[in-house]
Design goal:
- The structure is a single chain.
- By secondary structure, this protein is of the alpha/beta class.
- It folds into 2 domains: 242 residues, Aspartate Aminotransferase, domain 2, CATH 3.40.640.10; 131 residues, Aspartate Aminotransferase, domain 1.
- It has 14 helices and 12 strands.
- Strands 1-7-6-5-4-2-3 form a 7-stranded mixed β-sheet, sandwiched between helices. The protein has a 5-stranded mixed β-sheet with strand order 8-9-12-11-10.
- Helix 7 links the parallel strand 5 and strand 6.
- The longest helix has 20 residues.
- The structure holds pyridoxal-5'-phosphate (PLP).
- The site of pyridoxal-5'-phosphate has 16 residues, from helix 3 and helix 4.
Length: 386
């Protein structure tokens, strides 16, 4: 494929965008340019590559690819999702303010509240499902609104277009952590967001064998700044990991479609099970964010949170599962199940956890792409142990 025509379909771009055949050999796959530096032809003349912190062809192919999938003008890849989010926050200067959704990823909460507050950034945590709360928190110093939708693990949905409008009215920017949906199902830039963040560790790479993060920008000045911080702070993604994520992206379309069918079926199974008190999944018609989510996304994904009532019941289920693996993380081909209060959200203080509804009976599952019957059978036998 030559260039990157916007009118090609999602999976065609996932396989081809930013990845012309290798000009030297014709290799169909972008090679892993495992090199630290590049030879200059003569003094003052090189091929556009000087040093791999600044430019690397494998990383550039990945960056062009994700930019195409999210509909952005530029992408920048980092060593983890948190490294990408740290770089994003360098847009905010000392004395400036950020409005953030109170239900964000635990590591994001830790970075903002325990690291960045030391540098004079201030944060107001709001229930972003209520746009009035976002609006009320805005001040003259607000530079950035940061949301995740749906959130982890409460699956709360924020109206992206509404949040963008509020941010822009006060000359702030909207950043959306789109890790849970992937661009297959949700493209926040199309709804007015300015920057999209991903932990590529999750669905984009999809195979639980690499950590990474990307920022996708819609404004040239932001793309330039992220490139500048990437080279200055040095948190970029390695050539090998860039290769792995590119490889994962080629099957993003088919994987997400299978995650979606399995996810919906598991959510329905859980919501009709007598031992399950509550199921949080935006695909269920009684989910409070169902309609907004349907407006801004084309799928519901594979993340489901359910409540079995107590720590003891959650432990009984988790210890009994055989096909589903107990572990942090999400978005891989294998089903992973976790206990947010003691695992992913252990760094959120108990009072804060209670406020956002993360009780001890909550279990969060990232439904993989295994055979559905095996997943339902496994959950069924484990729930019997309560
Ligand atoms: C995992 C995750 C992150 C952090 O990404 P890492 O790659 O683990 O650093 C950020 N946001 C969300 C929603 C995540 O799930």
């Amino acid at each position: 494929m030559k260039g990157d025509p916007k009118d090609l379909g999602f999976s065609t771009r996932a396989i081809h965008a930013g990845q012309p055949p290798d000009p030297v050999t014709g290799a169909v796959t972008v090679p892993i340019y495992q090199t630290a530096t590049y030879i200059h032809d003569e003094l003052g003349k090189h091929k556009g590559y000087e040093y791999s912190r600044v430019q690397n062809p494998t990383r550039e192919a990945l960056e062009a690819n994700v930019a195409s999938l999210e509909g952005g003008i530029g992408g920048h890849a980092f060593a983890s999702g948190m490294a990408a989010i740290s770089t994003l926050l360098t847009m905010v200067r000392s004395g400036e303010h950020v409005v953030a959704s109170s239900n964000v990823y635990g590591g994001t909460y830790r970075l903002f509240s325990q690291v960045l507050e030391r540098y004079g950034l201030s944060f107001t945590w709001v229930d972003a499902t209520r746009l009035e709360a976002v609006e009320e928190a805005m001040t003259d110093k607000t530079r950035l609104v940061f949301i995740e939708t749906p959130t982890n693990p409460m699956m709360e949905v924020t109206d992206i277009a509404g949040a963008a409008e509020i941010a822009h009215k006060r000359e702030a920017l909207l950043a959306v952590d789109n890790t849970f949906m992937s661009p297959r199902f949700q493209r926040p830039l199309e709804h007015g967001a300015d920057v999209v963040v991903h932990s590529t560790t999750k669905f984009l790479n999809g195979h639980s064998d690499s950590l990474g993060g990307v920022l996708i920008s819609s404004r040239p000045e932001d793309a330039e700044w992220f490139a500048f911080v990437q080279k200055s702070a040095g948190g970029m993604l390695s050539p090998f990991d860039s290769f792995l994520v590119l490889r994962g992206l080629k099957t993003l379309g088919v994987r997400m479609d299978r995650h979606e069918t399995n996810g919906r079926s598991v959510a329905e199974f859980l919501s009709s099970h007598p031992k399950v008190e509550r199921v949080l999944y935006p695909g269920l018609p009684d989910h409070p964010g169902h309609e907004i989510h349907q407006r801004q996304a084309s799928g519901f994904g594979a993340l489901i949170t359910f409540d079995v009532g107590s720590f003891a019941a959650a432990k009984a289920v988790l210890d009994r599962l055989e096909v589903m693996s107990l572990g942090e993380s999400l978005g891989g081909v294998e089903t992973l199940i976790s206990h947010p209060a003691s695992m992913t959200h252990a760094s959120v203080p108990p009072e804060e956890r209670a406020k956002i509804g993360i009780g001890d009976g909550l279990v969060r599952v990232s439904v993989g792409i295994e055979d559905l019957d095996d997943l339902l059978g496994d959950l069924g036998q484990a729930l019997e142990s309560i």
